[in-house]
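Anyone else keep sequences and structure tokens together like this?

Example one:
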Amino acid sequence: MKPIEIKPDIYWVGVIDWAVRDFHGYVTPNGTTYNNYLIMDEQVTLLDTVKHDFGASAVDNIRRVVDPYRIKNIVINHIEPDHASSIATIMEYAPDATIYITERGKKGLDRHFDTSRWKFRIVKSGDTLSTGKYTLTFLETPMLHWPDSM
């Protein structure tokens, strides 16, 4: 599926997994989506990634909007695989990006990936990220969905 501009300069660049029939206990006869979003601003920002099997498709969707190398910030809301497991693929195309993540989330990524060359900014409730005309405000919500949710 192609990227969808959902608001000026904000794009859905996610993917559809047509094969999933059960997602977190919900019957999904038509599959599911793995949602990530791209903010086209002074600092190009990616919100979440997608399930690892679909990383290349996500990169293709990003490329339809912008060269992935221009991504300056990546926000990982939590490290559940459908949100974060293609981070290594994304970082191949955006090696200079800074990952915004909670402390718990960073520890989780460290357990699953070689993060030694990635840049991180650990965020907590009240921290902000200005992308230019947009400002993201972080709110930690541990165990709302996952231990590291924000």
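And example two:
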Amino acid sequence: MSRGSSGDKGASTLFLIVLLILGAAGTVGLKLKLEGFDRAQVRGASIVYLPSGQGARLTSLGYESVLADLIYLWAIQYYSDKGIPDRYRNLDRIFGVIAELDPHYEDPYLTGALIAVYEARDLDLAFKMLDRGMEKNPGEWLFPFEAGHYALLFKKDYDLARKYFKRAMDLPGAPAITRRLYADASFRTQDLDAAWKTWQDVFQSAPDERVKKVASNHLYQVKAARDTERIASAVRDFKGRFHRLPMNLSQLVRSGFLPNLPLDLDGQDYLYDPQTGEVKSATIPWKR
């Protein structure tokens, strides 16, 4: 992952930072002892050593990326210890300090969001962390892509997923699948125009027959959704006027409810059940 850090820091720099941290640790350790606490018996008590973002920046003496690395490594160890009570309470604070020190350090945003989703079960916090990554790295597609993934799979918020995928797919370097995920989320939110246009773009730019077939199947699905709703609306209007369902779809045309009967993407008629008024496509898109 890219970093906004300078070149390799010398051993003396690392030694200086470690001394600063140890100095802070000694101060806090003395405070705990005076207050009657044995830090060795308090799992996770090392969290008290962590300064605020501004404090950490002052402590680093200009070597923010080195200190960000050290805190990140410590955070990995901290969240690997299942015995620390309430460890997720400080999740945002810890990774927020890292972001303050080195805003272009990408891994902590992704790791923090991962911990928030899979361990802390806090989707809102995951989105907050990824949004922070987007704010500090507006040209990076990975953060909105990951946020869209979480919105799609875990939150089932297709409108939110669509917004994140749209942001990701408009950025340089975004993988081709981002456009497909955006199209699928658009279909799920019933934005059929956006879904149709995007799947057309995918179809026309497909690098191989497999992707072209996938896009074709989705185009079939979008057209079928649009057509069957149009026919179903005409069926409802027919029933409203005549107090019965039409015997067949041709009656909708003869009675003036439709100018013509649309065909599916393969040129087939849509199926109609005169007993229930149900309209559906003749083919399952994935079995074409």
